[in-house]
Write a structure and sequence with these properties.
Length: about 350
């Protein structure tokens, strides 16, 4: 190999570079078997590793969550004495809280118990469970996760926990690329493209449903109360209309005022019922509009399409790493042999 006085520096010229290469060529020819052994050997090893490495397909979903409240709308409804609640009461689902919602065990398990496709009874949990660490335990033999076979017991809970842990650690990742934006990325990795796509879709659907139900719970409660009140007042109104018509059908002496008391009372009750029913119907329509305004609160911006993106190490990448490592090992071996030969020559 070149001596220390031939080592290139930052001030080296082109002639110095060619001089070093010229002095290195004899060593390359001398130790070409060592170079070929290490470079080709580790290169082939790297290619073999890349060939047998697990190859996942990634389904990436982009969703947007509504973060801003509807203060103006709430103020308008407050003028009518109606409170349907804010779009995000207490801000419990803002920012990272919404991202954490995708990692809740209850919601993930609910997503896993959905069918793998519309024409199949096989659930996502049933498809994933064989690849979960610990599923080979004899106590899980014959365990089913179909909607009809699934039972809420200790054995199923243990199996579902293993699937949940496998999903959160290896299959699903949820994050916000930009904290100032409301876009959330949901990524699902799996060797089977269909499983990756269905798992992501099911999880987003489950979280969206829970999210909407949580934020519209108060508005739905108020709407149901108004519907009950409207039905009750409507029945009273119908009774008052009937009673008023009956009293008006009576042939009453115009000079007898006491006989008109019940008729006048029925007329007043009818007027009150009409006015009250009109106000309730108005508030009912406003509540329905407010509820529609809050739904949906999560919108799917982008959905993956086949073929899905490949993730993980590719064969050419592992082969290149093997070649580089082979070159380094070859240089190290050659330097050791040169050093040994120099020591032997000095001793002689």
């Amino acid at each position: 190999m070149p001596q220390n006085n031939s080592i290139l520096t930052k001030d080296a010229s082109i002639e110095d570079v060619f001089s070093v290469i010229k002095k290195t060529i004899p060593y390359i020819k001398r130790y070409k078997r060592v170079l070929l052994f290490w470079i080709l050997g580790l290169g082939l090893l790297g290619g073999g590793v890349g060939l047998f490495l697990k190859k996942d397909k990634r389904a990436t979903f982009i969703i947007a969550a509504e973060q801003e409240g509807s203060a103006g709308w709430d103020g308008l409804l407050a003028q009518f004495g109606l409170d349907i609640g804010g779009s995000n009461p207490g801000g419990i689902f803002e920012g990272e809280s919404l991202v954490s919602l995708f990692k809740v065990r209850t919601l993930i398990e609910r997503s896993l118990l959905k069918p793998i496709n519309k024409n199949s009874d096989t659930t996502i949990a049933q498809r994933i469970f064989p690849e979960v660490k610990g599923s080979e335990d004899p106590k899980f033999v014959g365990l089913k996760f179909g909607l009809s076979e699934y039972k809420k017991n200790k054995l199923h809970d243990t199996a579902m926990f293993l699937i949940y842990r496998h999903v959160t650690e290896n299959l699903v990742s949820v994050f916000k690329p930009e904290k100032k934006q409301s876009f959330i990325h949901v990524q699902c990795d799996h060797p089977d493209e269909q499983v990756a796509l269905v798992l992501g879709s099911s999880l987003i659907e489950t979280v969206t449903q829970f999210y909407v139900e949580s934020l519209t719970k108060k508005a739905k409660h108020n709407l149901n109360v108004l519907k009950l009140e409207a039905d009750s007042v409507r029945r009273v109104l119908n009774d008052n209309i009937k009673n008023t018509a009956q009293y008006m059908d009576l042939n009453i002496n115009p000079l007898t005022q006491m006989a008109r008391v019940n008729q006048n009372r029925s007329t007043i009750d009818l007027q009150i019922s009409v006015s009250l029913y009109g106000e309730i119907v108005k508030n009912l329509k406003l509540a329905e509009i407010g509820l529609r305004k809050q739904t949906p609160l999560i919108q799917l911006i982008e959905k993956p399409h086949f073929p899905l993106d490949h993730v993980g190490w590719k064969i050419w990448q592992t082969t290149l790493i093997g070649l580089v490592l082979g070159l380094l090992m070859a240089i190290r071996t050659i330097l050791i042999r040169i050093k040994q030969s120099e020591v032997i020559s000095v001793d002689q």
